[in-house]
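Reopening this one. Same input as before:
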Amino acid sequence: SLNVPLLTTDADIAIDTRGLAEAPEIGSVLRAAGFTPGPNPGHWVNARDVAVDLMVVPHQAGTAKATARAARLSPHDKRTARIARGLEPALVDHVEITLTALDSTDHRVSTVRVAGPAALLTAKAIKLAERLVQADNQPDRLKEKDALDAFRLLQAVETHVLAAGFASHHGDKHASAVTKEAIEVFRAHASSPDGRIARLAAAAAQGDPTIAPSFAALVTTLLAVL
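Same output, byte for byte:
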């Protein structure tokens, strides 16, 4: 087992604007629930420091401006969600999960759509690739945990399940494009123990010497069946 935290208190939510209604207004709902907008579009935090990040894929963002960070979701608050590449597969590769409260006296139940493992891997790869480009000027943007999250997914999910997930992305042109990019990111940076992503994962696991070779082996096995 890895001697690192298994969970965080933040939530990442991709909004599929094809099903987005004008009411209720998202910003008002979040504020009523005790959340306030953070410094970046789409980042909402409550008094207990629990964060929710709302994101929209570029082709649904309502703007073609290359420098835009906030999605245009009128009539919703202009800072409701930020534009994020890499989430396109999550819109087509997901399953419905029923969530219940940990407290047995709380009978609330919610059904949510959760991204499949291949969609999660794609999002991680795109995020890591962007941060690798920025690393020379903004080294603090490169998070070791993102690489370790990718390794955990590769460890936990059977290769054939991941392959099937990636295959499902090809039915949507937007999902297919970023998935192909993500696969090349893993090929370039995680298919050998010396790859930058493989080394980042090892660093996140407190320098465990088995992580980078294991990461590379898992990636190589996956690439062989794609």
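So the earlier flakiness isn't reproducible anymore. For the record, Residues 116-225 form one domain.
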